[in-house]
Design brief:
The chain is mainly β. 0% of the residues lie in helices and 38% in strands. It has a single domain, classed as HSP40/DNAj peptide-binding domain (Sandwich). The protein is globular. 21% of the residues are buried.
Amino acid sequence: MAEKSVPYFQNSAGLREIRVAAKEFMCIGAKPPFDHPHVYLDMGADDEIVCPYCSTLFKYDATLKTALSAPADALWVESEAA
């Protein structure tokens, strides 16, 4: 069985709000090494959620492609940590 990939988002820019195309994802705060504990967030039936660590407001946007964000650089890819 294939595993479902959960996108990771970061907010190094310190934005108040980030729009995302996923309702389930991980927030890492800022890019490593300044990240906070990686938190799994699930909006459920809602269209927005606030990260309990960094207070970033994430809003679901169905017009974005899967696992993308606005701004686009809020999507974090592990290879960026190197």
